[in-house]
Amino acid sequence: MSMYMSSKAEGRICLFGAPFDSTASFRPGARFGPAAIREASYGLETFSPVQSADLDDCPYMDMGDLELPFGDPVPALDMVEKTACEILAKGRIPFMLGGEHLMSLGAIRAAMKIHPGLTVVHIDAHADLREDYLGARLSHATVMRRVFELTGPDSLFQIGVRSCTREEHALVNELDTLPERIALKIGERPCYLSCDLDVLDPSVLPGTGTPEPGGLMFGELSSILVSVMTRLNIIGLDVVELAPQLDPSGVSGVAAAKIVRECLLALYRGPAGSR
Ligand code: MN
Ligand code: MN
Predict the structure, then answer these.
(1) Is residue 255 part of a domain?
(2) How far does residue 167's CA lie from ligand 1's centre (Å)?
(3) Alpha carbon of 101 to ligand 1 centroid (Å)
(4) How far is the CA of 241 from the centre of ligand 2 (A)?
(5) Which has the minimum average pLDDT: 40-44, 69-73, 194-198?
(6) What domain range is 187 assigned to?
(7) Domain of 265: which CATH number?
(8) Domain total of the chain
(9) Which of 99, 222, 258, 266 could form a disulfide with 103 if both were Cys (CB 3.0 to 4.6 A apart)?
(10) pLDDT over 90 at 9, yes or no
């Protein structure tokens, strides 16, 4: 598939890239993620046998990448928020390609403005719930703490976390982590889905800044995503933290592009697609 060629001029699902990685705590490179996902998409089919659905039928458009400033995350977050707001205000679904995970905060702020009862499903190897990281409150290691402050404890759900501090662990224990129970708890409420690709095992996706052994296999993540997205009212989503240059084989980019394809198709098949 080529992500560009299958995309429509007026699709309801709006892809955009947020190539920013200035707060990366270990290995930077996620700024090259969106371009690598598009590049890898050329090698994939538009049809998904697992979902029996074809991207050629899916109403999505690719808006390209935002031109984000380097260094200071505050203006970058504002730009992401503004873009996501514009997409949501038109009744469309923003689908952000990271970039580092902090950029999700901009899109989630926008989603909160338009959908006050917002719930967030966070899929990640890491809890990302630190109060601050080396003094910084805005970091990819603190992003879900900032989200937690917006949504409250009853509206943030985490899947796949296998690395956290002792303090984060206390918070994680209060959050629901099983996909089926999460879907039941969320019901028809609007939901933003944020997927940090490092939830995959490093043997599947080594091209990421903070690899964490003991992760999901590709099929496990793709079935969780399909199950959650075909049931819930997804109003926005992102796939973040691909750092393609950390994987010389290029396979990480292909895995990320295939996850994006499955997400687009699951959205199209789910309640969000039938609106
Ligand atoms: Mn992570
Ligand atoms: Mn993360």
Answers:
(1) yes
(2) 17
(3) 8
(4) 7
(5) 69-73
(6) 14-274
(7) 3.40.800.10
(8) 1
(9) 99
(10) no
Q: Which pLDDT belongs to residue 38?
A: 97
> Residue 275 above 50 pLDDT?
no
User: Do 275 and 237 contact (CB within 8 A), yes or no?
Assistant: no
Distance 133 CA to ligand 2 centre (A): 13
Q: Is residue 172 part of a domain?
A: yes
Distance 143 CA to ligand 2 centre (A): 7
Residue range 66-73: mean pLDDT, rounded:
94
CA of 198 to the centre of ligand 1 (A): 5
**What would the DSSP string read from start to end of 45-112?**
-SEETTTTEEGGGS-EEEEEE--PPSS-HHHHHHHHHHHHHHHHHTT-EEEEEESSTTHHHHHHHHHH
Given the DSSP bridges, would you call strands 47-48 and 53-54 parallel, antiparallel or unpaired?
A: antiparallel
CB contact at 8 A, 240 and 105: no
Q: Which residues surround ligand 2, an ion (CB under 5 A)?
A: 101, 124, 128, 196
Please give the single-letter amino acid code of residue 21. Answer: D
CA–CA separation, 75 and 63 (whole Å): 20
The reply to whether 7 falls in a domain is no
Ligand at minimal distance from the CA of 126 is 1
Query: Coil, strand or helix: which one is 2?
Result: coil
**What pLDDT score does 176 carry?**
73
Is residue 2 in a domain? no
Residue 49 CA to ligand 1 center (angstroms) comes to 29
CA 39 to ligand 2 centroid distance, Å: 23
Percent of the chain with pLDDT over 90: 86
Contact 226, 192 (CB under 8 A): no
Global pTM?
A: 0.96
> Which pLDDT value is given to residue 3?
63
Give the number of the ligand closest to the Cα of residue 141: 2
Structure-token pair, residue 204: 């599947």
- Reply yes or no on whether the pLDDT at 175 is more than 80: no
